[in-house]
Design a protein that fits this description.
The chain has two domains: 2-26 and 106-183, Ribosome-recycling factor (Topoisomerase I, Chain A, domain 4); 34-101, Gyrase A, domain 2. The chain is 58% helix and 15% strand. The protein has four helices and six strands. Strands 3-4-6-5 form a four-stranded antiparallel β-sheet, with helices on one face. A hairpin with a 2-residue loop joins β3 (55-61) and β4 (64-69). α1 runs parallel beside α4 and α3 packs antiparallel against α4 (150-183).
Length: 185
């Protein structure tokens, strides 16, 4: 019974780390990535649709992203969606593709993005602590229901704390790597 709780705890905490990495992929680093436009939705015949579902998105070089819509009529809605997304660049529409030219990042921009990354890291730590709380509650309930002994309960809580500490350390590791990536010129 406790092993099931440990497995669930580990699985949920791993999902928190994966979510953190997904969040980090939307942050800009020294070179551009197509993930910067992942959260942009385009008005496609009245339906908000992900940009990557109505166009091809490629990185041309370290500072340029090219977006070629599958339908020419989408050029204006895509340009409008990019401007509204406020990702720090204005779309350049040449009549067939939209190019996004990202200027080199300033120290202030890098510092601001590091702050965003730290906030995302804190969100992941809170999620992990909430998972720990749920798991601890399950162990305490088993003890209360007399399904496990007090000693087993104490060992269970200690093991959950160790799992939590390991995942908090993973968050720190991922955050430090992302911070180094952002600050690298």
């Amino acid at each position: 019974m406790l092993d099931e709780i440990y497995t669930d705890t580990t699985t949920h905490m791993e999902k928190s780390i994966e979510a953190l990495k997904r969040d980090f992929s939307t942050l800009r680093t020294g070179k551009v990535s197509t993930h910067i436009v992942d959260n942009i939705k385009v008005d496609y015949y009245g339906t908000p649709t992900a940009l990557n579902q109505v166009s091809n998105i490629i990185v041309q070089d370290a500072t340029t992203i090219a977006i070629s819509p599958w339908e020419k009529t989408l050029l204006e809605p895509i340009a409008k969606a990019i401007q509204e997304a406020n990702i720090g660049v204005n779309p350049n529409n040449d009549g067939s593709i939209i190019k996004l030219f990202f200027p080199p990042m300033t120290v202030e921009q890098r510092t601001e993005i590091v702050k965003q990354a730290k906030a995302m890291g804190e969100k992941a730590r809170v999620a992990i602590r909430n998972i720990r709380k749920d798991s601890n509650d399950k162990v305490k309930k088993l003890e209360k229901d007399k399904t496990i002994s007090e000693d087993e309960s104490k060992k269970g809580l200690d093991r959950i704390q160790k799992i939590t500490d390991d995942f908090i350390a993973k968050v720190e590791e991922v955050l430090k790597a992302k911070e180094a990536d952002i600050m690298k010129v």
